[in-house]
Predict the 3D structure of the following.
Amino acid sequence: RVLKPGGFLMTTRRIGLEGRLFFGRYRGKSDFEGYLAELGFVGVRSHAWQVNYNMVTAWKAPRRKKARLYT
């Protein structure tokens, strides 16, 4: 799926021992939030959700308007 600019992302991140069993794919809270920020998401926040999961929310940054060049 593709999230359009300005769209809202809501996903989950497994935490604790079960999360760490995803060898090579597990990211800590700050690493995951930083990864989303690198992808262009803003307002990235983690929320306690369930015993073994955090819910992560973010907004995809709106597309910047191209500058108009006048000649």
User: Anything to note?
Assistant: The longest helix spans residues 29-38. The chain has two helices and three strands. The mean pLDDT is 88.
